[in-house]
Amino acid sequence: RAGQHHRKRTGARASCARVAVSGRETSVGPLESAEVRGMVGAMPASEAALRTSELTQRYGDRVALDRVSLTVAPREIFGLLGPNGSGKSTLIRILCGLLAPTEGHAMVDGLDVDKEGEIVRQHIGYVSQAFSLYRDLTVDENLDFFSSIYRLKGAERLERKQWAIDLTHIGPYRDRLAADLSGGWKQRLALAAALM
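^ thats the sequence. predicted structure below, dont judge the formating
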């Protein structure tokens, strides 16, 4: 089942993750030394929500990503697991169009992340581990600000904002400053902003 994750352990640190995608379980080792196998070529690139092919990222002599190839279908949940320094953040930065890969190719929603990074960012939402919204704005003000960044207007803006509030159950905190939310509610606010 999509979204199931299992960690294999050797000693105290994870060396491999098992990720099930479309009913097929695939081993995923550290991204600096392994390629996601068994998912490439499963569907045409135009139908994939996300596709990477031989994605490589080097920082001088250090290889952060080594020929990472994967395909994620629309509406599929995909987990990216690995130890610190294994290349997860580097991969995310490439997929967001913020970092050009040294080699290889990546597509998000049919868009080339290297050539169409700005358009890619208009099609995606990203929730970072650290809270990155405006602490001195209320929940409502943060959502209004982010809806304007996504160029939402009029009835669509109101509808998407209400949908995100309902989904995250953050409605009772709409007038509260983001700084005054608990850690969990800050993450819900960040998720609501990313999903709009």
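The first strand starts at residue 5 and ends at 10.
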